[in-house]
Amino acid sequence: MTVLARWHVGPWTTRGSRPGEPFEAGVKRTPDELNFDVVGLARILGRRLSGREELQVRLWQNELRPTHTRMCGVHTLADPSNAQSLQDTAQEALAWLGERAPAGYEFVLTDAVELRPLLDLDAEVVAVEAVVGLADVDLPAGRLAAAHARRTSSGDWYAGDAVCNWSGPHESADAAVDAVRAARAELVEQLRAAGRDDLARTSPRWPAVPVEAS
User: How much is the pTM?
Assistant: First the structure.
């Protein structure tokens, strides 16, 4: 089973209105559009569909996205049974994503598909973000400690996430990883200073620093 490389915690799709909520045209997807985004996210990340399923996705796309410039938060599927089929397919796609979540994390569907750290401190793998969140104190090293190594199109390596770089440029992936490891060591000391030895003791079970080459 392929496990997805983590590159950011938080929403992986555009946010949408949940069933029963008023639509917000131009701001949030309709429930049908959100379900379509869930299906699309799984396809982008490698989920294979049969020819018949691909055809159905195209039919949904034609109805929900008639043009590339259409405003979001407006379109719905006319046939309720077709909307239910899309919802069922979105749930299957979400389950597929869930099986491939990185260790220590889970995919959940709120008003978007989000990657979240698991908060079980007894788990085999404990995400750094979970530790930082549970500490509920100011931890200056926390942001960099939760970062990953990423190479940009220029060839330079940075430590950060999908949006921001917090350390670098570095000459190599190893150097970027070392910056994150140093921040993790600082984080352990900051947790102990804050009286959270219970959280500091999870450090041997933190996941390896993710490395993403663009």
Answer: 0.88
